[in-house]
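To the structural biology subgroup,

Please find below the input and predicted structure for KIB1-4 beta-propeller domain-containing protein, which we are adding to the shared reference set this quarter. The sequence is reproduced verbatim from the submission form. If anyone notices a discrepancy with their own records, reply to this email rather than editing the shared folder directly, so we keep one authoritative version.
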Amino acid sequence: MSLSEMLVGATIRFSKGGWLLMSKGRKTLFFYNPFTKAAIQLPDLPEIYSFTGIAFSSLPTSSDCVVFGIAQDDWFEISIFVCNIHLRHCTGKRFLEDGFIWKVLAKPRKHFNVVYPSFLVECDRKLLLVDLGPLGKSVEIFSLDFSKMVWVKVESLGKHMLFISNTSCLSAIAPNSCMENKIYLARLHGEEILFYSLGTGRVTAALLCYCMGPFARTQ
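Predicted structure (tokenized):
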């Protein structure tokens, strides 16, 4: 199958470091880098794609890259599928066979609201929880304290910025000061985008080139 044929009808599931993790059909997964046009085919899934979440640990060009997905078969049962792309296998049993032990952190209802969305994102080697209120007008960030396994409120992102969407979330060091300490939302406002500033505590609509001039407009 050619690259163009593989991309037609494919769905973006996750992204990191310029690489997209995509699915096509019921069992096909592959990586695609839109900047280099490189693609890496993954082994077919053992079952039909039914993940509620899927991600990869490091860049697919790294020897330690692992793809893992979570599927909720029932309200009380969750399956974990792991794919080591360099060992060329995908399985839903490897965690148990290799003796891995993990603990499920109880979902704090205060932060994970069933009405408004919450998002997990890695930033500066920390796991952050972005909690959005109605229409993104109320935004809070928490960091997981792994020593106590509790969520701690974050007041500032420093030089980092976050990009949040239903498909994927990522963080980056801002290329200039006017983009620091902000959360960019996958929502359009006419020809503008929406972002939340932790410095001002406001959601703002701005043109993509807002950093080059006085284009921003506070909502």
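Summary notes: The radius of gyration is 19 Å. The longest helix spans residues 3-7.

Regards,
Lab coordination
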